[in-house]
# Entry
Amino acid sequence: MPRKLRKPLYSFDGTGITHYGGLTLFLQFCKLIGLKRFLARHVRWGWTGHRWTPSELFLRHLLMTVAGVGRIENSVTLKYNGVLAELMGMEGFPGPHALRAFLLSVGDRALEDLYAAHDVLRTILLNHPEPIYAAVVDLDTTTLPVQGHPEGAVKGYVPHFFGQRCYSARLLTETRRGLTLRGELRSGSAHGVLGAASFLTEGTRLLPTHVPRQRVRVRADSAFYDKSFVQAVENQGFSYVIDVRIARPVSNRLGGLRYREFRHGYEVGEMMYQPCHWPEPVRCVVVRRVRSLVSPPATLFTLKDYAYTVQATNLDLSPEAVWRFYCDRAQQELLIRALKGHYALGKIPTRRFLANRVHLEILLWAYDVVGWFRRICLPADWQRSTLASMRRDLWNVPGYLTHSGRACHLRLPERFEHQDIFRHAQRKLARVRPLDAL
# Structure
């Protein structure tokens, strides 16, 4: 039996030590795709740091997000990491003041260039490694509570926190490829449907031209149930499924519909309904569930013994197929939860509204680049893995970097469980091409 530790001796002379051994795969991926050079070519920062360039500081923010550091103040822990800074080709790691100064220094023109560069990246990812021929576009909003009085934060609707100051984040994603198409930070009192038509148009213009408009399907919740938005979607030739707010004119018609059961406890019906001031009626699919079978208890509209949901659509599908298609929109809710938790979207870093918009854009870059890494480098059974699971199973592994001549050797634990995944990713990295060559 090994002897237990009795009197340890301490020394502070260790170099090349890290607990992010697996994260070196992601660093290598960013280097092989030429992300730093891509940013330097497409973004006019208008500001140069004394020790680090703006592109380097942008990549440090992206690395912090992927590593799960959280708030900027927690970046001091990366100063003691003896591997990441060396593999990124820099001396030391910038502190919290330098990282926050970078966010505050980015101007409007640089942010527009960053948006344009992200659009170029999205266009590449929508066609790589294979093109898409249909698209499912999800649209949603979420509130971000803040403390104090930062710019643009006003009292808005925050569940369970009445009168809380907040921002509002609006997201547009392509679900099949798992890619963001657009994201913006707004005042907390801005309604979700305000400017949603132009927001959707800007995001969907990134879709490949060979994708027919009839094969683009838009899903949105009841915040986007509005005449102008529905007309804009129809004018572009898109299909849609939008959740309907069950006001009194709608609820008065629910009891007189004919329903049929399509699964245990679920009944479906449909109707043609024309809201006030709408030019023509729309098809509405109604699904009701027995309240006693709903777990947890229903918080939606209830009438007698049933809980109801209503979706407006122009899809030529059966009512139950429309309902199932809309239920898949839960992936958008999972994305928002991941952005708030794993990507630290809920941790607003500064008091300036423009700097916070830059922070949101960095998080969206991190989400798309991580998704690209997962799609290219990880095996098929890891394609649905989240950032949290990749941190736990692959990236947060202790390692020790040694040098032998001109070669670097990263020593990982002998009992590392996912050695085969690590080697699989190394083989895939050998085939990664830079962004400029795609």
Q: What stands out?
A: The chain has a mean pLDDT of 88.
